[in-house]
Amino acid sequence: MNRKFMLLSMTLLLVLLISMTIAIMVGSVSVTPLYVWKVILSKIPIIQSSIEQDWSRSQEIIIWQIRAPRVLLAAIVGAGLAIAGAAIQALVRNSIAEPYILGISSGATVGATAVIILGAFSFLGVYALSVSAFLGSLTAMGLVFFLSHVGGRVSVFRLLLSGMAVSFILSAISNFILMLSKQEGGMKAVMFWMLGSLAGAKWSILVIPTVIFIVVFALLWLHYRSLNLLLLGEEAAVTLGVNLQQFRVQLILLVSLLTGVLVAVSGSIGFVGLIIPHIVRLIVGSNHKYVIPISALLGGIFLVWADALARTLIAPEEMPIGIITAFCGGPFFIWLLRRNNYSFGEGD
Predict the structure, then answer these.
(1) For 100-111, b where at least 16 C-beta lie within 10 A, e where not — what string?
(2) Which residues touch 339 (CB under 8 Å, ≥6 apart)?
(3) 248-293, pLDDT tens digit by residue?
(4) Distance (Å, rounded) from C-alpha 69 to C-alpha 203?
(5) pTM here?
(6) Which residues contact 291 (CB under 8 A, 6 or more apart)?
(7) CA–CA separation, 105 and 120 (whole Å)
(8) What is the number of other CB atoms lying within 10 angstroms of the CB of residue 278?
(9) What does the DSSP assignment read for 243-269?
(10) What whole-number distance in Å separates Cα of residue 198 and Cα of residue 343?
């Protein structure tokens, strides 16, 4: 499996780089892949002197300042949502769990809406949006788990119902705050969160989501054995040495932090955390040593292409990226429900 995993990882990494290159190329102004990489490499101090600068200033602005940060953000958001979905599915041992369904994204959206419309956490400056979105996602996840506890245990059925209920309530709160707003600019900004978009991508906002993604990815990968043991059931996991309550709290914090920060920069993008982990498990099985990194790569590829489609399908207008992911996720969800021979962790 290690050889297969390495080959698959290198292949997906190459596909991701090719996808990102194509995504930077397409748009109202087309650029060649040669110029894309020459501009990018010219920004690396060690080798910039060896790059012949034969491109125009406008091409550099389009490639480096507009498209490159957006495409990179798409890869990070897609990868982050994918590993968050994989972690939540292992946590609740349910194949249809993901941040969007369990209300985490809705909680983060409420937090972001409160910052944009009500000016909450304004004393935090540029970090207000990320902090508020994280607190909103953490509150939503905590509330869902509280409502789903039965006899000291988490009921999967109640968890899903609680997630949907909390998601509906939080969406209503977001809509209520939006209704109170008299500022047209504020209303448009809130719609950004609700529909999902990467149009606001800039190099300055990439630092926090990139760092958080790397940290959460590393921690989830380091604890892949505990994630695998969760799939065996609560009693088996405890018997084999997993501190269940502590590990659950850690997972909730990690997933809430990652989802909150990603929603803060991209809006509420659903179905990525549902689709990608399932596809990965069909390919490599349910061992999270392989599921986590492959989900990250495949999630990045998926959202890079989804964003490229969102930019080009109805050009010069831009389609919200959440519509693209919903078009993909809805049919996949229906197929999953209709596939009688599918079981969680298939592929072992």
Answers:
(1) bbbbbbbbbbbb
(2) none
(3) 878 888 888 888 888 878 888 888 988 899 899 989 988 999 999 9
(4) 6
(5) 0.88
(6) 86, 224, 277, 280, 281, 284, 285
(7) 18
(8) 24
(9) -HHHHHHHHHHHHHHHHHHHHHHH---
(10) 34
